[in-house]
Write a structure and sequence with these properties.
It is built from 6 helices and 6 strands, in the order E-H-H-E-H-H-E-H-E-E-H-E. The protein has 176 residues and is of the alpha/beta class. The chain has a single domain, classed as Rossmann fold. It comes from Moraxella porci DSM 25326.
Length: 176
């Protein structure tokens, strides 16, 4: 079987100043950084062919223990803005198992191994297109893991990935 790919749309590399904005929002609840990230997201055009009738935005979920520790879900906050900006519904039908090792600080091989069975579905995929949203895509392992689960449950699903920043100019997101 030929390899399938998930298209990735990113606003920036994960470098200054984007990395500082993301870190200040996620780690320090900095509202000025959040407003700057909203302004950046507002520049991102909606992918062609995505309508409210056939497309949902899926924020990459975090564990409930991570939300308790942080006090909020930064990816969900950013995804809600993108949902409003693009006038596309938000779908939270994917959940992350608690006890999964956090990705930050892991090298590429550790990240790839860490995301093999991170997720589970809490509801059926409601549309024919899903935009997976994450704040940072480093190796693509998290997005690829989510995409594999979605495709295994909805084989004809079209998946697009959108992020604020990614870690490299040279990577692909294999979904199958």
């Amino acid at each position: 079987m030929a390899s399938s790919h998930v298209r990735l749309f990113s606003l920036s590399y994960y470098q200054y100043p984007m990395n500082h904005l993301i870190q200040n929002f996620k780690d320090h609840e900095n509202l000025h950084a959040l407003l700057a990230l909203y302004a950046v997201l507002a520049k991102l055009p909606k992918p062609v062919g995505c309508t409210a009738k056939d497309t949902v935005i899926l924020p990459i979920p975090t564990t409930s223990s991570r939300i308790r520790a942080r006090g909020f879900n930064p990816v969900l906050i950013l995804a809600k803005f993108l949902s409003w900006h693009w006038q596309l519904p938000l779908w939270q039908g994917l959940a992350r198992h608690d006890g999964v090792r956090h990705q930050r600080g892991l090298n590429r091989s550790e990240r790839l191994a860490n995301t093999q069975s991170d997720f589970y579905l809490t509801s059926a995929v409601p549309t024919r297109q899903v935009i997976i949203f994450d704040d940072v895509v480093t190796t693509g392992s998290t997005v690829a893991s989510a995409a594999r689960l979605l495709i295994s449950n909805a084989p004809k699903l079209r998946i697009i990935s959108v992020c604020l920043a990614h870690g490299s100019a040279d990577f692909g997101l294999d979904r199958a």
